Amino acid sequence: MQAGTEQKTKVGLRQVISALRHRNYRIYWIGFFSSIIGMQVQTVAMGWLVYDKTGSALNLGIVSGSVAVAAIVFSPLGGVMADRIDRRRLLIGTQSGALACSLALAVLVTLDIVVIWQIAVIAFIFGSLQAFDQPARSALVPRLIDRSDLMNAVALTSVVWQGSAIVGPVIAGLVIGFLGLASCFYLESIGFGVFIICLTLINVRKDEEAPRARRGIYTDLLEGIAYIRANSLFMTLISLSLFNAVFGLSFIVLLPVFAREELGLGPEGLGALFTAIGIGSLAGTLLVASLGDFPRKGLLIIGGACVFGALLIAFSLSTWIELSLALLVLLGVTRSLYMTSSQTVLQLRLEDRLRGRVTAVYGLTWSLMPLGGLQAGAIADVWGAPVAVAIGGVAIIVFTLFVGLRQPDFRVALQPAPAR
User: Fold this and answer.
1) What CA–CA distance (Å, rounded) separates 177 from 190?
2) Exposed e or buried b per residue across 256-295, where buried means at least 16 C-beta atoms within 10 angstroms of its C-beta
3) CA distance 19 to 187
């Protein structure tokens, strides 16, 4: 009996990591993990650097908004380039640019000559590079594995994001505390360098399909927008995503303010706050996965978003470190509940020929999260960070209930389809 149980465990483990049996994907995954760890370290270190230098929540929002502006401007072109040139070489270029930016920031901090406009410019460049990097990564992964392992590869990619959200902030907090800010940016550049090396080691198989005739970029873009506008379900999902990104997740930008002003924490404590969100997000992702084909996905979306808003209000009122950490874990859980459920519904209902354009619009809503940081930073400068976060929580609850209660077709559309 025990041998049988052990055999099932081994089989289950092999299924969980089946995509890693492919050499190309295994090498890519290692490099991708190191790069994303570097990005998480950068998020914490750059936020602490800005607030340490200026003491201004508005400046935190400006730097964060620089990333969002770059994403808005260059994401459409990034998607086009990912479909027209070698994805591996494009990734090597974006990662090389990110490495150069992190080294430049490290040198500026080391020489103690860094000023806010330099940080904002570097943040804009980072955002521009990510606008090309993300679609190239999404398009490259299917070429590294067999089609049968594609779903597993997507899951392992999600594990990287969730795991790095836990580990990265801890590393950043410890490095800032013991070695200084500059060391964080040097470490970040190493992460990008490892990914570059890994990309040079993989062999991408050639596309065997004949190239398809391409229409104009704007023609395809307008067709996708018209399709979204004609479908109330997609319009609602994208609107909820946009509203939650701008008014909900903007609290992340203000975490350095909460760490220092409300909770009396240093850089190590700030890293712990980020880590709490990562733990909750990972737990929420696993919870959604355990639900399987849950029939009432609309309940998870609407209920999860409303609870998320209520937790934001509670977090804004907390001055107790342990309570704040617990609330951040719960915020991560509820965020994963409504985000993952929303993405699942979107993918299930989409026509395949329009999948890329619609999911690109949906993904762009989350790129606008730093702009939410800009408005939250402006409010925080006038009335304080707790008020800014509480306003965001109230706004999310009101908007989500408006969508859920005033649009019955949305709830009906999320019910399981009748058997055919």
Assistant:
1) 19
2) bbbbbbbbebebbbbbbbbbbbbbbbbbbbeebeeeeeee
3) 28
DSSP state of 201: H
CA distance 190 to 194: 6
Contact 119, 63 (CB under 8 A): yes
Helices (H), ranges, 1-22: 2-16
pTM above 0.90, yes or no: no
d(CA 338, CA 284): 9
Q: What is d(CA 253, CA 246) in angstroms, rounded to the nearest whole number?
A: 11
User: How many CB atoms lie under 10 A from the CB of residue 364?
Assistant: 20
Is 341 in contact with 287 (CB distance < 8 Å)?
A: no
359 to 279, 373, 416: CA distances (angstroms): 26, 23, 21
C-alpha pair distances (Å), 240 with each of 224, 237, 247, 337, 389: 18, 5, 10, 13, 18
Q: In the chain, which residues have pLDDT < 70?
A: 1-18, 79-80, 83-84, 139, 142, 147-155, 205-218, 220-221, 223-224, 285-286, 288-297, 344, 346-348, 350-360, 367, 370-371, 405-420
Q: Assess contact for 320 and 43: CB atoms under 8 A.
A: no
User: Which pLDDT does position 162 carry in this prediction?
Assistant: 73
168-207 pLDDT per residue, tens: 888 888 898 889 889 999 999 999 999 999 999 998 765 4
Closest CA to 38 of 196, 193, 188: 188
**Residues near 397 by beta carbon (within 8 Å), at least 6 away in sequence:** 305, 306, 309, 310
Instruction: Please give the pLDDT value at position 354.
Output: 61
**Residue 31: CB partners within 8 Å, gap ≥ 6?**
194, 195, 196, 197, 198, 199
DSSP line for 241-301 = HHHHHHHTGGGGTTHHHIIIIIS---HHHHHHHHHHHHHHHHHHHHHHHHH-S-S-HHHHH
Query: What's the Cα-to-Cα distance from 44 to each of 49, 77, 159, 172, 318, rounded to whole Å?
Result: 9, 28, 20, 6, 21
- Written as one letter, the residue type at 224 is G
Q: What is the pLDDT of residue 309?
A: 92
Spatial CA neighbour of 403 closest among 342, 319, 348: 342
Domain annotation for the chain: domains and CATH numbers = 18-203 (1.20.1250.20), 217-420 (1.20.1250.20)
pLDDT tens digits, one per residue of 205-233 = 654 333 444 566 667 667 667 877 888 77
